Amino acid sequence: MAGLLIWSGEHASLLFFMTVPRFLFLLAVILGPLALFFGTGCPKKSPQVGAADALPTVSPAAPEPAVVSTPVPTPMPVITQPPTKVVEDAAEQTWREIKDYPFTQRADFLVGLERLEAQVEQQIVALKARRLNLTEDPHAWDNAMQVLESSLVDLRAAAAQVAQATSSNWEERTARVGRVCEREQAAYEKVKALTPP
Fold first, then answer.
1. Range with the lowest mean pLDDT among 13-22, 52-61, 137-146?
2. Chain centroid offset of residue 108 CA
3. Which of 94, 187, 100 has the alpha carbon at shortest distance from 146?
């Protein structure tokens, strides 16, 4: 705050006057119109320019003809039935490939077993997709599918046991996997027989 110090007699009193805000106000009142006058400047006397002359004229170019291309639809293959035969054969073939592997090929056996599990899952998915076409009572189909899904769970459990097998119990555990695969294939055939094409 700015103020003015006034000394009077024995007592000094400090009186604050609002001199700075008054000064700024007066300065704005005096200089404001001058700034507007000089800031905008005086217009020079120049020939009148019409609105049409202000911008350069550009003749519009003729629009190029629009090329309309209609996409040619590619014919989609009609699949009336999921390819269950390929999956079925692949699952059987996978088991035939790995069933005689010795303990020294345990890693290859486990990889093949994982592939077999994936193929059984694909079989189940394909059969469930075809279940929508089922016209008969679905209870028999559902029961058979439960057996197939249960055999997949058994296959996973047997695979976990084989993963921890030693050379002494390798044949016993791989034989158990073989029995589970046979049950799975029989369950698959039963569901497949109950599933419409």
1. 13-22
2. 34
3. 187
What is the spatial distance between Cα 124 and Cα 88, in angstroms, rounded to a whole number?
10
The number of helices, as runs of H, and strands, as runs of E, in the chain is 6, 2
The whole model's pTM is what?
A: 0.54
How far is Cα of residue 102 from the mean position of the Cα atoms in its chain? 43
Alpha carbons within 13 A on the beta-carbon side of 18? 5
Q: Are 107 and 170 in contact (CB under 8 A)?
A: no
Instruction: Find, among 128, 142, 184, 189, the residue nearest to 159 by Cα.
Output: 184
Nearest partner of 154 among 182, 127, 193, 128, judged by Cα: 182
Identify the CATH number of the domain defined by range 84-194: 1.20.120
Instruction: Please give the mean pLDDT across all residues of the chain.
Output: 74
Please say whether the beta carbons of 3 and 14 come within 8 A. Answer: yes
Domain residue limits, the chain: 4-39, 84-194
